[in-house]
Amino acid sequence: MSREKRLAAINTISAVIGQSLEIQDVLDIAIDKVTEVTGLEVALVFLLNEESQELELKTWRGVSEDFIEGKKGLKVGEGFNGRVAQTGEPLLVEDASRDLRLTREAVKQEGIQSALIVPLKAKDKVVGTLSVAMRGSRQFLNEEVELLTTIGRQVGMAIENARLYKSERLAAQRALASERKHRELFENASDAIWIHDLDGNIITANKVAEKLTGYNSEELLKMNVKDFLAGESLNLAGEIRHKLFLGEAMEQPYEQRLIRRDGTEAILKLTTSLITEEGKPKGFQHIARDVTTEKKMQDNLRFYLGQIVRVQEEERKRIARELHDDTAQELVALSRQLDSLTSAGHLSAKDISSLEELRQQVDRVLDGVRRFSQDLRPSVLDDLGLLPALEWLTSDLIQHFGIEIAMGILGSSRRFPPETELILFRIAQEALRNVWKHSEASRAWVTVEFGDDKTVLTITDNGKGFELPERVEDLASAGKLGLAGMQERVQLIGGKLTLQSEPGKGTTVAVEIPS
C-alpha cells in the first residue's frame, strides 16, 4: 500500500470514528472501516477492564459464535492479545494455531493462520487491542503494521474521548439530579432557608423564608440581611461571621431576632454555615425556625413561675417572722415561767423534777422552731448576703447531721441582686439536703468561684451517686423533683445548671450565672 493510500485510509477512519462519542458506535465504525481499508477477512476489538485486568471482546467481524466463545475473558499477558495488552507493542502471528486459547478444532474450523495484533492506545496507555487476521498464510508488510498501529492509536483516542464524554455526561446527570433534589429539599423544607454572599446580599431563599420575613422572592433577592437586623442582632451576626471565618467552635443553633416586613419582631433558632468554593469563602447559608410563639410562651411561663416563687418566698418569710417574733417569743416566756416555778421553795422534789423536764421539752421545741424559722428564711441571707448564708448553712448541717462539709471561695467576692442570691442559696440548700437524705456521703464540698464574666456555685459529694437521665428536662419524669426544681430556679436568673453523677462516684451540682 502506497504512502498516499495509507494516509487516505488513516484520514478516512479518523473522520468516521470522530462522528460519534458512544464507545460501541466508535468500535463498530472502526472495525468496519479497518476491514474495508485493509481488505482483511477477520477483525476483533478487545477493551481492557482495568479493575479485573481482563480483555473484554466488544466487537468482531468474520468469525463464528463458537470462535467468539473461546475468546471471552482474556487475562492480560494471556494469549496473543493479552501479550500485546501487556507489552503495548504490535505482534505478528504467522501461525495462529500456537495461540493456547484456541483449540485445534476452532483453528481448523475458522481456517485462521496469519494475524496482526496492535494495541489501542490513548496517551501511551493501553486501553485495548485490535486484531486482524487472514484465513490462510500471509505476510504483513511493515507499511501495514504502521497503518494498523496508527489506526490503533486513533481508535484508542476515540475510545478515551468517548469514555471522558460518558463520564462527564454521567457527572452532569448526577449533578442535575442532585441539584433537583437539593432544590426540592430547599423548597419543601419546613424551616426557612436563605443564602447570602459575603456582603450580605441575598442570593436565594425558600418559600418558608418568604413567609417568615413577609417579603416575596423577587423582593428578597434585592435585599441585604442588614435590612432585617438591627442593634444587638446585627452585632451577633458579625460575631458569628467572624467565628465561622476563623473556624472557631460555636454553639448552634443560636437565638437571633429578625425584623419582619410589618415591623414586628421574630425570634429564630438559627443555624449558620460558611459556603466555600475551592477552599475560598463565598457566602453563608442560614436555616431558621420561627420560635416566636414558643419563646413568648416560655417567657410567660417563666414570669408566672417567678411570680409563684416570689409569692412562696414571701410566704416563707412571713411564716419565719411569725415563728421568730410570736411563737418563739412565747416559748421563751413559757420556758422562763417554768424556770421560775422550779425555783419556788414550796414545791416538792418530784414537782421540781417534772417542771424541769417540761422546761427542757419547751427548750427543745424552741430550738426546733428557731431552726425551722431559719430554714424557711435565714435572716443572715437578708442581712449579710449569700456567702455568710452559705457558711451558716454548712455549719448548721455539720452540727446537726455530722457530715463533713468544706467551703471554698475563689476570686474576688461580690454581691448579687437579692433574688439571685436567694435562688443560689435555695439551690445549695436543696443540694446539701439531698446529700444528707439520699447520697450516704461522708463528705461534701461547696465552692463559689467568682470570674470576670460568670460565677459558678458547685456542690459536690462523695456519695453513692445515681444514673442521670439523658436530658436535664427529663429530671421530673425520672422522679428527681428536687433537681428539676433547681433547673426551674436557675432559668429564672438566666443561669445554667449542670449535673454530673454516676453510681458509686458521687454527685456534682454546678450552677453558672452571668456576672
Write a brief structural summary.
With 515 residues, the protein is of the alpha+beta class. It is 51% helix and 23% strand. α2 (23-38) packs antiparallel against α6.
Structure description:
It is a single chain. The chain has 515 residues and is of the alpha+beta class. It has four domains: 3-167, GAF domain (Beta-Lactamase, 2-Layer Sandwich), CATH 3.30.450; 189-290, 2-Layer Sandwich (Beta-Lactamase), CATH 3.30.450.20; 292-377; 381-515, Heat Shock Protein 90 (2-Layer Sandwich). It is 51% helix and 23% strand. The protein contains 15 helices and 16 strands. The chain has a six-stranded antiparallel β-sheet. Strands 8-7-11-10-9 form a five-stranded antiparallel β-sheet. A five-stranded mixed β-sheet has the order 12-13-14-16-15, covered by helices on one side. Residues 100-106 have low confidence and may be disordered.
| CATH architecture label of the largest domain | 2-Layer Sandwich
Query: What is the β-strand count?
Result: 16
Structural class: alpha+beta
Mean pLDDT: 79
**Percent of residues in helical segments?**
40-55%
